[in-house]
Amino acid sequence: MKKQLNKWDQVAHFYLGVDMECVNKKLSSDLEYYGMRGKLSSLLFDKYVNGNWKPRLRPLDSMTQEEQKEFRSLNTSRDNKEQCEANNTVWLLKKHFDLFNLIRAGLAIDKTNPKI
Asked: Which residues pair with 21 in a beta bridge?
C-alpha cells in the first residue's frame, strides 16, 4: 500500500537546516538524552519526520522592515522574471519563512510565538 503524503512531506526538502520541534514527548526526551539536535537533516527526515516533528517557521508577515528592504534589493533590472522569482524564493527559504501555509495547516510551529 502506498503511503499518503501530507503537505509537509512534499515540501520538507526545501527546509533542510530549519529548527524542528519534537511534538512526541516520549521521543523528545529520548532524543534529548542522546544529545540529538532539533535541526532537520536528511537522516532525521527519513527516520523521524512521520508526524513526530514540526518545523519552526516564520509567517511572511513577520518580515522586519530591514528584511523587506533587503528583499526588494535582491533583483536587478537585468534579471529576467524567472531569475527574480528564484532569487526571492531562495532568500525566503533561507530565512525560514513559511511559503506553503504549513503553520495554518497545523504542520509547522510559528517561530515568532513564544511557547506557552
From this structure: 54
Q: Which residues pair with 57 in a beta bridge?
A: 110
The tens digit of pLDDT for each residue in 39-80 reads 555 555 555 556 677 889 999 999 999 999 999 888 766 768
Contact 111, 58 (CB under 8 A): yes
Residue with grid cell 526571492, as numbered in its chain:
88
Cross-strand partners of 110: 57
For residue 22, count other CB atoms closer than 10 A to its CB: 19
Torsion 38-41-44-45 (CA) sign: positive
Residue type, 88: N
Give kind and range of the element (H or E) at residue 82. helix 81-94
Q: What CA–CA distances, in Å, run from 110 to 50, 72, 86, 92, 106?
A: 19, 24, 24, 15, 10
Cell of 72: 526588494
Distance from C-alpha of 79 to C-alpha of 85, rounded to nearest angstrom: 10
